[in-house]
Amino acid sequence: VSNKMWGGRFAEGPSAIMREINASIPFDKALWRQDITASRAHAAMLAAQGIITEEDAATIDGGLDRIAEEYERDGVPEDWDLEDIHMTTEARLGALVGPAAGRLHTARSRNDQVATDFRMWVRDAIDQAIAGLHALQHALVARAEEHADSIMPGFTHLQTAQPVTLGHHLLAYYEMIARDVSRFSDARVRMNESPLGSAALAGTGFPIDRDATASALGFDRPTANSLDAVSDRDFALDYLMAASQCALHLSRLAEEMIIWASQPFGFIRMPDTLSTGSSIMPQKKNPDAAELVRGHAGRVIGCTTALMITMKGLPLAYSKDMQDDKPPVFEAASLLGLSIAAMTGMVADSTFNTDRMRQAAELGYATATDLADWLVREADIPFREAHHITGAAVKLAEQRGVALDQLSLDDLTEIDSRIGERVFDALSVDASVASRASYGGTAPEQVRAQVKRAKARLAEK
Ligand code: ARG
After folding, report:
1. In sequence order, what are the beta bridge partners of 286?
2. 27 C-alpha vs ligand 1 centroid, how far in Å?
3. What are phi and psi of 269, to 5 degrees?
4. Residues 319, 323, 325, 328: is their CA dihedral positive or negative?
5. Residue 31's closest CA among 107, 142, 123, 97?
6. Which of 111, 196, 233, 310 to mutate to test the pocket of ligand 1 (most atoms within 8 A of CB)?
7. Confidence of residue 279 (pLDDT cuts 50, 70, 90)
8. Poorest-pLDDT segment among 9-18, 153-162, 220-229
9. What are phi and psi of 143, to 5 degrees?
10. I need a surface site. Which of 27, 30, 267, 385 has the fewest CB within 10 A?
């Protein structure tokens, strides 16, 4: 039997392999809502333009309504012969309303249809990502405010560098996430043009109104070039690239929390609700959610790479390779949604062991730079020499197993006679943190100012 939809010029039907490799319904059924919405807008436009009768348009509309109810209730049927969601719905419409169904595809092709549906889907995915990221930003800001004064070691090379506040550290992630939100928002503005009416590739001879369908579907305008419109997947790539960068940020946060939760660090206790146990080691509490966020980032980046490579060799206009655009986008969206939700819970519900963090900052000689700076400021010693003197002080403290501010003044003057009593004002982690009050710095007052700015930005949304 030749194909019901396009079999007119075929003597033989497709092989089993052809039917299977061709079928996108197993995944593109996720577009059913967008497909029905776009079809309704198209039919209404066709009637308004006098291309089909109002009566046919009403029949089509009623049929699509019923199909939506069926899909909602029973799911979308998967018939490989119908290939995709577009033909599945059109075939069902024919069965329900008869010949009027055959008029719906006037002045339309599946090429502009799928491009339109998919844009609408991606647009929703962007809105969902932004909503999730806002929740994460709120959690970060709340915890940052709570810990504007909590001191921890700041690291470079994962070696204790200078003391910072936990609030400052959390707000660094707030900034990354703010850039992610901005990237998603930019992508949304750029993608919000309607391909509908581009037809197969060249436009159509029917007197359609592309502005009408564009505005009915919430697009800002119709796309400008029909060839581009049916062969463009930049909107999906923009989404995937924003998602990749976002997943990368979530992965870095997950990685830090995994390190902080390990026993030698002991900086945080993760919520039980986002941890798992071990089947053999009763003491274990494993950071699986965070580890999966870190893992998922790799997959999201893989999805992006997959679609880039699919697209890079394609001539204009539509090629069937482009049917493979959807699985990576769907996969990335679901991985990203889970990752955002998991990290929001981790940030909101982890317990910070602030004593332990402070202790780690004190024992890690995190204020060595403060000692060197003091020698420069108070004793007019060139920084390079001050660096050397401070190195000797760290070495001595290390030999004694004490913090820098636990060395005696005698110890210090033996290293360099220019060191005076007042050096101790600079050696505590509190003094160090308080002194770094430059704009954006780690001083509690600056952290509170950052919290204030972040809250104001979040309130604007
Ligand atoms: N299932 C197809 C896809 O997802 C729809 C477009 C088919 N167009 C075509 N010319 N065969 O890409």
Report:
1. 276
2. 13
3. -115, 120
4. negative
5. 123
6. 111
7. confident
8. 9-18
9. -70, -35
10. 385
Would the pTM count as exceeding 0.80?
yes
CA dist., res. 319 & res. 316, Å (int)? 8
Which helix (H) or strand (E) segment holds residue 389: the answer is: helix 383-400
Q: Atom of ligand 1 at shortest distance to CA of 28?
A: 4
Q: What is the pLDDT of residue 278?
A: 81
Could you give the dihedral angle defined by the CA atoms of residues 181, 243, 259 and 367, in that order, rounded to the nearest 10 degrees? -40
| C-alpha distance from residue 461 to each of 178, 238, 250, 448, 457 (Å) | 12, 22, 22, 21, 7
Burial 94-130 (b: 16+ CB within 10 A, else e): bebbeebbebbbbbbbbbbbbbbbbbbbbbebbeebb
Q: What is the DSSP string of 135-153?
A: HHHHHHHHHHHHTSS-EEE
Q: What residues flank ligand 1, with Cβ below 6 Å?
A: 24, 28, 83-84, 110-111, 114, 318, 320, 322-323
ipTM of the complex: 0.96
Confidence band of 208 (pLDDT split at 50, 70, 90) = very high
CA of 74 to the centre of ligand 1 (A): 24
Give catalytic residue positions: 157, 278
Instruction: Give the distance, in angstroms, between the CA of residue 240 and the centroid of all CA atoms in the same chain.
Output: 9
Q: Which residues contact 99 (CB under 8 A, 6 or more apart)?
A: none
Average pLDDT over residues 189-210: 98
pLDDT band at 2 (very low <50, low <70, confident <90, very high): low
Cα 111 to averaged position of ligand 1 atoms, centre (Å): 6
Instruction: Please determine, for residue 242, whether its predicted confidence score (pLDDT) is greater than 80.
Output: yes
Query: Rounded to a whole number, what is the largest CA-CA distance in the chain?
Result: 101
Q: Is 108 helix (H, G, I), strand (E, B) or coil?
A: coil
- Give the closest residue (by CA) to ligand 1 atom 10: 111
* Structure tokens that stand for 166 in this block: 């936990």
pLDDT over 90 at 285, yes or no: no
Give, in order, the Cα–Cα distances in Å from 30 to each of 86, 236, 337, 343: 11, 15, 16, 26
Residue range 391-410, pLDDT digits in tens: 999 999 999 988 888 999 99
Alpha helices in 148-233 (DSSP H): 166-191, 210-216, 226-231
Output the residue whose Cα is nearest ligand 1's atom 1: 84
Q: What share of the chain is helix, strand, coil (3-state, %, to 5)?
A: 70, 5, 25
How many angstroms separate the CA atoms of 355 and 351, rounded?
12
Atom 2 of ligand 1 has which residue's CA nearest to it?
323
